[in-house]
Amino acid sequence: MSRAATTVGESRSLHRFANPARFVRIADAVYPWALAGMAVSFLIGLYLALFASPADYQQGDTVRIMYVHVPAAWMALFVYATMAAGSASYLIWRHPLGVVAAKAAAPVGAVFTFLALATGSLWGKPMWGTWWVWDARLTSVLILFFLYLGYIALMNAFENAERGQKAASLLCLVGVVNLPIIKFSVDWWNTLHQPASVSRIGTPAIHESMLWPLGLMALAFTLYFLVVLITRMKSELLGARLRALGAAAAEGR
Amino acid sequence: MDGLLSFLDMGGYAAFVWPCFALAAVLMTWVFVGSHRELKQRERRMAQLRALSPRRRRGDAGEETAS
Amino acid sequence: MSRAATRKKKRLYIALLGLISLGTATALVLTAFEDNLVFFYSPTDIAEKGLTPEQYVRIGGLVEEGSVRQLGDSRIAFRVTDMAHSIPVTYTGILPDLFREGQGVVAQGSIGDDGATFVAREVLARHDENYMPAEVAEALKASGEWRPESGQPPPR
Questions:
Q1: Which residues contact A196 (CB under 8 A, 6 or more apart)?
Q2: Are C82 and C11 in the same domain?
Q3: What is the domain extent for residue C59?
Q4: Domain boundaries, position A106
């Protein structure tokens, strides 16, 4: 907290602040396009997902759950990978934006993971006959959810902000081992969850008429993440400066 | 009307399909609105602080033009 | 300046080393607990291992074509097969919507007193990774192009 205030005068800190300023410039340029793209792909994606795509030959209309469940699950993994990259750049190269990005992304990733779990449960009940089983896929995704919660908790657990950032970033990096486990759990072990459809070697196992809404919804979710990430990162940077200004004002009096 | 009812029925799986879409809409809207509201709040506070202190540091001014 | 660069390099190596050892440790642990991570046993696993009536396990495979028989009072009998071995199963209760011949199934229970029939207390359906509209499935069946690589018979 006070670190930013005390280093403001140093020349190195100017260099540090140069990067966030450039980030804000680029982010502001990207934002309107991402927002527009998100709106368009949500509109078309939802139209295809709910109206203009066929029911599945086995699963009937429950297949429409896929258009929320699968993008949410992909994003749960993607957001975590993003956070891990940010955490690594912060821990190794002390890049301040890395931890800002990871901190801003964490709640979004937690929501995506929760959505994947909840919609999976709502899909599992009518098709599999159960809300939940402790198979390798479902359990490893639940662990991912707890990793997100643990990251958020650790980040806020310390009086000293920098200590929290370091501890949370370290947890984030350790949790990376869970990502390949989630991805390959359906291949390595017997699970109730079926193997991957889209990334299957060769042609995807999903008919074109269902692949389109899935792809568009995945694009919409990705752009949603970009829009929210930009907003939260800007907010995070402003929050840090507000705290620094507040601390400086308190010291000056 | 019939078409609408059968659409809402989702082949008998309405109780599972619609909650999925509703949950996604509610949670994602909540995060979206919450994030934007927080940013707006902080931007307003920053503007207030600027108005209060006529003397600005150069570093702050440089960043303000960027945001 | 160069000292800062060395420190960064050092941190990078520490991080890489940490990740590699963490990955190795995780792989070792997962291999050691392999038996606990398996959600169900195939009929072949059961044929090799054998089952005692005390063992409460899950078995999984496909519902054998033509093996489903209604025994009345929501009691049914069917066979679970992995194309190499098959096990007769009885079950009393509500079946999931996806339960049908030729589809994947996971049954939880134990072997009955006769030592051969698996008495299931819970039956879960398992679907494959294929998604398509009904017309496409019909057309594929009609043309005889029913995904030969998956080794799965056409539904119904």
A1: A183, A186, A187, C129
A2: no
A3: 43-146
A4: 2-252
Whether C24 and C55 map to the same domain: the answer is no
Domain assignment of residue C51, yes or no: yes
Q: Residue C153 domain-assigned?
A: no
CATH number for the domain spanning C108: value is: 2.40.50.140
Question: What is C23-55 written as a DSSP string?
Answer: HHHHHHHHHHTHHHH---B-HHHHHHH---TT-
Name every chain A residue with its beta carbon within 8 A of the beta carbon of C131.
56, 59, 63, 66, 197, 205-207, 210
The per-residue pLDDT of chain A, averaged, comes to 89
More confident residue, B63 or A252: A252
> How many Cβ contacts (< 8 angstroms) between chains A and C?
121
Percentage of residues in chain C having pLDDT higher than 70: 91
The mean predicted confidence, pLDDT, of chain C is 84
Contact A88, A74 (CB under 8 A): no
pLDDT tens profile C16-37:
888 898 888 888 888 887 777 7
User: Alpha-carbon distance A136 to A127, whole Å?
Assistant: 19
Can you give the residue ranges of every domain in chain B? Answer: 2-66
Element (H, E) at A88: helix A66-93
Query: What pLDDT was estimated at residue A174?
Result: 94
Number of domain units in chain A? 1
Return d(Cα C130, Cα C145) in angstroms, integer.
14
Of residues C8, C126, C137, nearest to A128 (C-beta): C126
Q: What is the pLDDT of residues A167-212, one digit of tens each?
A: 999 999 999 999 999 999 988 888 889 888 887 766 668 888 999 9
What angle is formed at CA A99 by the lines to CA A95 and CA A105, rounded to 5 degrees?
A: 140
Report the pLDDT averaged over residues C66-89: 90
Mean pLDDT of C36-48: 86
3-class DSSP state for residue C86? strand
A134 and B39 Cβ atoms separated by less than 8 Å: no
Cβ contact B63–A241 (<8 Å): yes
The identity of residue A219, as a single letter, is L
Say whether residue C72 is in contact with chain A using an 8 A CB cutoff.
no
Q: Are residues C32 and C51 in the same domain?
A: no
| Separation of alpha carbons A235 and A230, rounded Å | 8
Locate A76 and state its tokens: 């749960």
Q: Are residues C15 and C74 in the same domain?
A: no
Q: Contact at 8 Å (CB) between A188 and A136?
A: yes
In chain C, how many domains are there? 2
* Residue C75 sits in the same domain as residue C117: yes
